[in-house]
Design brief:
Number of helices: 5
Radius of gyration: 17 Å
Largest sheet: 10 strands, mixed
Number of strands: 10
Order of helices and strands: EEEEHEEEEHEHEHH
Oligomer: single chain
Strand content: 25-35%
Shape: globular
Helix content: 10-25%
Distance between the termini: 26 Å
């Protein structure tokens, strides 16, 4: 299978697991060794401003302070990650997703965001999702996921509750018209 890095995974209606039901996942890494992604449409009850406060980061602008922190996935929920449109070399611990998109776990990016010198666009998440070698490919064959190209407007500008529908619409699909029932003919 071709790499799914820099693609959206869109859960099918029949995927009912609590973590992934009606989810959109930004695939940050995918190769023969497995896959890593961040759920981009499930907000937590926390806000980025709370993180700034807990980490004693002085805020000079409130651009991000009232933005919800996302539940990025079921693994390492204590790990904060930032998806952003900046250069990966600017902050330590960055993974290049594509030419204009990075995933960073650096505390320095949060300080820069609070000071107004961070990336133009960013999402903060707690946790991530991962798949063992061959696991994601198997789930796709079982019709648990659709894949679509990443759309930065959906990623950074679309309200969280609309991202599942909008991501499927990239493929010309009204996800509400797909049955959650499946079987064999």
């Amino acid at each position: 299978m071709e790499s799914l890095q820099n693609r959206f995974l869109i859960s099918m209606p029949q995927l009912l697991s609590e973590e992934f039901s009606k989810s959109v996942v930004l695939m940050c890494h995918h190769d023969d060794g497995g896959a890593i992604g961040i759920i981009i449409n499930k907000a937590t009850s926390h806000y980025i401003g709370e993180i700034f406060s807990e980490m004693d980061i002085i805020t000079t602008i409130d651009t991000y302070a009232k933005q919800p922190v996302l539940n990025g996935g079921p693994l390492s929920q204590e790990l904060g990650l930032v998806i952003h449109n900046g250069r990966e070399s600017r902050w330590k611990s960055s993974l290049k997703v594509d030419n204009g998109l990075c995933l960073t776990s650096s505390k320095e990016i949060l300080a820069d965001m609070a000071a107004g010198s961070g990336p133009e666009r960013a999402l903060v998440t707690f946790g991530y999702a991962s798949w063992a070698p061959g696991q994601l490919e198997s789930e796709i064959r079982e019709n648990s996921w659709l894949t679509a190209p990443v759309d930065h407007e959906i990623l950074f500008s679309t309200p969280f509750q609309d991202r599942w529908h909008r991501s499927a619409a990239i493929l010309g699909i009204d996800i509400n018209q797909i049955s959650g029932q499946f079987g064999h003919a």
